[in-house]
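INPUT
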Amino acid sequence: MARPIAFTARPTGVGRARIGSLSTPHGTIATPQFMPVGTQATVKSLTPGDLRAAEVQVILANTYHLSLRPGHERIARLGGLHRFMGWDGPILTDSGGFQVFSLAHLGRVDEDGVTFASHLDGSSQRLTPERAIEIQEALGSDIAMAFDQLVDATRRAAEVEDAMARTHRWAERCLAAHTRQDQALFGIVQGGVDAGLRRESVAAIAGLGFDGIAIGGLSVGETKAQMTSTLDVVADALADDPRVRYLMGVGSPPDFFVAVERGIDLFDCVLPTRVARNGQLWTSEGKLNLRNARFLDDPAPPDPACLCETCRNHSRAYLAHLFRAEELLAYRLSSLHNVTYTQDLMRRIRAALDDGSYGTLREAVTAQYGSAGARIDKPAVTDR
RNA sequence: GGGUAGGUUGAGCAGGUGGUGAGCUCCGCUGACUGUAGAUCAGCCGUCUUCGACUGUGGGGGUUCGAUUCCCUCCCUGCCCA
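OUTPUT
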């Protein structure tokens, strides 16, 4: 039987970085690629048209939130998530595993699954591997994620190991429960920042029949050095695996380089859209906080090097005003820019991997995000 | 002109009838944010040499060891009467 997705990639000569192509039922994705987060069937403040304008190729939506509201059965009745939200490109759905982590205080994990109080009305809810798959099949995403358990990597080893082992058992249950032939299913590697556990987790997850391999449990409080070394371990362990690799929850502009060099093909992160709503724009001059007083009289576009709608038509002074006045347009214009910037950055990374300018690009971007990149190791590669 | 209620740090307030008024909300200034309970949160927001100290309750004067508080007077604002 034909796989729901197909992934091809070629090495680039830059570390373990590769350039690839991932075909899905709703379109083909160039990798490395970034997925904006649209938790509640919307990338906050942006329309599908905005996303297309920003050259977004795939978005992430959320099992937990959509099952609570409006309900996955309702979305299924209304023709599935793509039709419901008016986005006909590829969609990846997260399984709810992250909410088990971020809403841990509302729930309790047992071997079979998780019981928790809804953050909306306090009602008791149950999520299991089977349930997470059922919901994602109802939503009809192109790529579903296995239901996993992540814990704070700085917790004691036994706790991290327990969560990892449970994630492995849940992974098998997810595969067994998955029936939709037009939907891919990715497994998730856990194991905190412990090299031994990460190798064990890669062996367990990669040994199952998943369509892609995700790396979870990172960028949740560990240091940049720990994230980097963990990615090194995982990259080594996955070296001969042909499947697409997805680093969950990352990242910032400097993070992309660290991960791409270690063979990562897919990213998702709330950062570009969340920080945009809080006034932070990512630009060729680094991070700008448009709420700062100094921008009130600045007629320049947010990023002179950007061609997005925001930068073509509006000034920093205008955005600074919109943020102060709490006008809704501030959120859309800022989000549109940051998503455009991020897509542009990924495109430049793909191009640089091809033409030998990767090291130069990495150095330039890392320098622009000085403070953010300060804790990151120096470039692992240089231009050939 | 008479009466009455007021005047507190940019704004709006709280409090205070002789011995700690720098407390709150806005506004303002910064910072944070990584598989979104986040258009959110945190710090600062009189001055200084900032783990502390000083100044500050409309102006002036008085009583008192000590006054935001009591007394006198002036100014300003709202309302009522003339």
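end of record. Residues 371-382 of chain A have pLDDT under 50 and may be disordered.
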